[in-house]
Specification:
- Helices cover 57% and strands 18% of the residues.
- The chain is α/β, with parallel strands linked by helices.
- The protein has four domains: 209 residues, Alpha-lytic protease prodomain-like, CATH 1.20.1510; 77 residues, Cation efflux protein, cytoplasmic domain (Alpha-Beta Plaits, 2-Layer Sandwich); 74 residues, Cation efflux protein, cytoplasmic domain (Alpha-Beta Plaits), CATH 3.30.70; 75 residues, 2-Layer Sandwich (Alpha-Beta Plaits).
- It has a four-stranded mixed beta sheet with strand order 1-4-3-2, with helices on one face. Strands 5-6-7 form a three-stranded mixed beta sheet, with helices on one face.
- Helix 2 runs antiparallel to helix 3, helix 3 runs antiparallel to helix 6 and helix 5 runs antiparallel to helix 6.
- The longest helix has 36 residues.
- Pfam families: Cation_efflux, ZT_dimer.
- One of its GO terms (molecular function) is monoatomic cation transmembrane transporter activity.
- InterPro entries: Cation_efflux, Cation_efflux_CTD, Cation_efflux_CTD_sf, Cation_efflux_TM, Cation_efflux_TMD_sf, CDF_Transporter.
- It is a multi-pass membrane protein.
């Protein structure tokens, strides 16, 4: 059976070029603001720390200098990440944000090592002179205000654009905030006479840096390793089972790139369904996944589910898989004490040679015989696939039509619902619609149509074809 594949457009495909460009400008403006704020903090903290001899402020300044580099990397990553997918980067360029975030983690980690080493050294050797004047607390207060504003802006940007780079910035700035609070407490201790308070504050800042760097590294390495969040997997699985309850979920592969989820789904469907039906199932699954995870880019592949299918479905699917078979019908299965003989009609291209048609039939017969141990024999009837038959412009002759209508009435005992005789290039064709007992089963209706077709062909040998449609009558 042919596979049904469907692909959804990425989220950006649903937006205009103007909206994408506006978002890109806003992202760059946000990153530039973070860069400028980090530079201001470096000047404030380092300058004040060197002036007053405060290791805690110097360490906070070093951390902020790392943020300058980190913000610069974020700006570069955003400029690269907003580029659309291309032939070399099928999933886009947003992995650049994860790489930039790892760079940020490495930078702040090195800064933390330097700060931690110096803080431990001062604690071992004893305290050092620190000028805890009033203006130092003003600088720290200003730094706290800037840190809070940076965290709020970065978190909003991370949520709006599902950006790993902005999210990592928010973590860094939260570390800055905690560090500034530690510096404030340390300098307050110094002002109260505890000279080692500054070194203790610097050590706390170093520990905060290590925690932030570890978290950044963990999250972004996990993203680069294509970690699939369990909550998204659970939501998508539930959506698939609800949208296609009769299909078998054979494989679900997820990857997240810069906040966008890519879902690769393989479904096992009934082997007797048509390609159009499989495609409709794939469409339903795709829509259900996007309802559960709006940012998802989905590929759904449907393939025959041979396990659990009855023998007839397996025979039909096996026959239609052959590249030379255009159609298969009239499948009959004859069983006797656990064994089966299978018979079916195969339609191939009309211009096929008998040798090629026979080779295809043997191929199909062998594959059907291998389906189950109890298949004793397989017999095929070869037919050419029908091409279109041209209708002639003239209607059937009045006498022939009248005679045929009289025969139909005699056979039915009543007038048909429709009796349309048409001339074609292969001879007259009768399209007949008759009413049957509304309570009758399909088998009885089929028997009636078959008998009508047989009797009409006997009574009117010129008929090239008889197409009998049955429908329930009144009552």
């Amino acid at each position: 059976m042919a596979a049904a594949d469907t692909v959804t457009p990425v989220a950006a495909g649903d937006r205009t070029a103007e909206e994408i460009a506006a978002d890109a400008r806003l992202q760059r403006r946000t990153a530039l603001w973070s860069l400028a704020a980090a530079m201001v903090l470096v000047v404030l903290k380092l300058g004040t720390g060197l002036l007053t001899g405060s290791l805690a402020l110097v360490s906070a300044g070093i951390e902020s200098s790392g943020d300058v580099i980190a913000a610069f990397l974020t700006l570069l990553a955003i400029r690269l990440a907003i580029k659309p997918a291309d032939g070399d980067h099928n999933y886009g360029h947003r992995r650049a944000e994860n790489i930039a975030a790892l760079g940020e983690a490495a930078i702040v980690f090195v800064g933390g090592l330097i700060i931690g080493f110096e803080a431990v050294r001062l604690l071992i050797e004893g305290g050092h002179d620190v000028d805890a004047s009033w203006y130092v607390f003003v600088v720290i207060g200003l730094a706290l205000v800037i840190d809070v504003s940076r965290i709020v802006i970065s978190l909003r940007a991370a949520r709006r654009w599902e950006s790993a780079a902005f999210r990592s910035n928010a973590f860094n700035f939260a570390g800055d905030l905690a560090g500034s609070v530690a510096v404030l407490i340390g300098l307050a201790l110094v002002a109260s006479g505890v000279q080692q308070g500054d070194a203790i504050a610097a050590l706390i800042v170093a520990l905060i840096i290590f925690v932030a760097a570890g978290r950044l590294t963990f999250e972004n390495v996990r993203a680069l390793m294509d970690f699939a969040p369990e909550d998204q997997r659970t939501a998508i699985t539930a959506a698939i089972l609800e949208a296609a309850p009769h299909a078998e979920l054979r494989r679900l592969r997820l990857r997240e790139v810069g906040g966008q989820v890519f879902a690769d789904v393989t479904l096992g469907v009934s082997p007797a369904t048509t390609v159009a039906a499989d495609h409709e199932t794939a469409d339903r699954v795709e829509a259900a996944i996007r309802a559960a995870v709006p940012s998802a880019d989905v590929v759904v592949h449907a393939e025959p589910q041979m396990s659990g299918a009855d023998l007839r479905e397996q025979v039909l699917a096996t026959a239609l898989k052959d590249p030379d078979v255009r159609d298969a019908h009239d499948i009959a299965i004859y069983t006797d004490r656990g064994t089966a003989i299978v018979a079916l009609h195969l339609k191939l291209d009309a211009d096929s040679s008998l040798r090629d048609a026979h080779t295809a039939a043997e191929r199909v017969e062998a594959q059907i015989a291998a389906l189950r141990p109890g298949v004793e024999a397989v017999h095929t009837h070869l037919e050419p696939i029908e091409g279109p038959v041209a209708l002639r412009p003239e209607r059937a002759r009045g006498g022939d039509a009248d005679d045929l209508f009289a025969t139909v009435v005699a056979l039915l005992g009543a007038e048909p619902l429709e009796c349309d005789l048409r001339e074609t290039d292969v001879g007259p064709v009768l399209f007949l619609t008759v009413a049957t007992d509304a309570a009758a089963g399909l088998l009885a209706a089929h028997d009636l149509a078959s008998e009508l077709e047989r009797d009409l062909r006997i009574a009117h040998p010129r008929l090239a074809d008889v197409v009998v449609h049955t429908e329930p009558g009144p009552g």
